[in-house]
Amino acid sequence: MTSVAGRSTGPSDDPATDPGPDHTRWPADEAARHRAAGHWRGQTFGTLLTLLADAHRGRTAVVGRTGGRTQRWSFTELDDRAHRLAAGLHGLGVRAGDRVVLQLPNVPEFLPVVFALFRLGAWPVFALPAHRGSELRHFAERTGAVAILTVDAHERFDHAALAAAVAGDVASVRNAIVLDTGAGVDLGGAVGLADLYADPLDLPDPDPEGVAFLQLSGGSTGLPKLIPRTHDDYLYSVRESARICGLRRDSVYLAALPAAHNFPLSSPGVLGALHAGATSVFSPGPDADTAFALVESERVTITGLVPPLAAAWAQAAGRTARDLSSLEVVLVGGAKCGRELAARIGPALDCRLQQVFGMAEGLVNYTRLDDPDELVLTTQGRPISPDDEVRVVDPDDPLAPSDAEVAPGAEGALLTRGPYTIRGYYRAAEHNATAFTPDGFYRTGDLVRRGPTGHIEVVGRVKEQVNRGGEKVAPEEVEDHLMAHPGVLDAAVIGVEDEFLGERTCAYVVPVPGDEPPTGPVLRRFVRERGVAAFKVPDVVRVVEAFPVTGVGKTSRRELRRALRSGEH
Ligand code: OOB
């Protein structure tokens, strides 16, 4: 890989596919500091798996279902599968630096596939199972991907047909590779994943400071951006996450959310579990029925959930016959988990709550297992690393940011820089010019407050704050008040245009199933009686059956706004 003035060029030397300068690397002096501090250890994921296989051999690394079959692979078997798949992919012409769009649901094959690509030095582009044609085409085009690797069908959607269509549309895509789960769809001209297992090859280890994969941004506007993460930087966050979340060899991590997302992948996720020599269980779906059965049968000790799912699990735990007593820690993150919900989770699931505030771009914050309860209930944690730099700045003018720091404890926009936070999105020079400060801090777009212990409370998104006639309303705060009502399972607040106020608030509420849903006036009175400023009482309340969600299951306020504009609610 060549470096030009702090930028790296694509590793391919073929001028037809060489993407040119595509992402910003860490400046040399900072990189040297991260190495000297022991954060970056010059190890790749492929080498790590070999070491893990030596250390843990016959212990179970992965459990999951492919089609109707339960599979259980030891560390040795996972390592062997990754070696053989790497050889098969090499046989297809996949080389170091090539991009491969990966769209797998929670099947055990996820891990050998990802590690095979890591070993080759080819970059998985982590699409989510919920993505469809417009996203997959965008990922393939933007990255010049050489292949798409997916499953035949999942949740009654024909992914093989979609992969074939995208391969037909995007010239760089030479192969569609499909995991056949026996769903019975036509695989067309796709290569079967099972046919790729070949005799292992001796492959050169990729550059640990080079890109390992492309993650996707949560993306509040437009299509997701691509996030280049390196072996060195990501391994640091995985290693520390495993430690902070107390993973041990006898831990069992349940991937309930789609494993390709950064949260179940690395916070501490399946990679953290592997790192600790623990077992990863892939749940085919995130719903309480499916997951509780696995918690019982596999004696799951730890998992990670987005807040709407945590609310649903807490509700379901009260009436399940399943034995959930093995659960020790439930991480909740991805969106704000307000105090009301936070206080419900531990007692309902009889476990320790750990809040996590992370982003695929890098920075991850955790409440610590020995933090006082008050911090666990009211904050989203503190950074993983002593070298994560955090600045809380004046959010007032996003177009002409002064980036002046606010007073300690005051609300402001979060900027961050550190050993595992990217310095630029992949092939997005124009966007990078505003998404990062000139000195390399990432503008997270999150509104936060930082307390004296360094714990961060997320107040909302800079852009989602509702400006109600000059009074600022954080949707998350109003949602938390609504969630305190016993009849409310979930709440989402958005701003709606208003002739007089500029914006007013509209609260959507999902009632607890089976109960008589609370009415708008009842809920407005309820919020008012909790002693909040009148301007925070939602102007409109709508009761709906469910919320639209993002690919990882976060409530999509963007989709709610769209539905409201188009008159669907
Ligand atoms: C995780 O990653 P992304 O990339 O899907 O989304 C990042 C964004 C953050 O910038 C923030 O706006 C929001 O999601 N977020 C939270 C939060 N955790 C994430 N907002 C409030 N409270 C939280 N606890 O979502 C992600 C990555 C790694 C671990 C966990 C979540």
Automatic annotation (TrEMBL):
Pfam families: AMP-binding, AMP-binding_C. One of its GO terms (molecular function) is acid-thiol ligase activity. It comes from Pseudonocardia sediminis. It comes from the Bacteria. Residues 1-36 are annotated as: Disordered. The keyword Ligase applies. Residues 53-426 form the AMP-dependent synthetase/ligase domain. Transmembrane segments: none annotated. This is 2,3-dihydroxybenzoate-AMP ligase. Residues 1-11 have a biased composition (Polar residues).
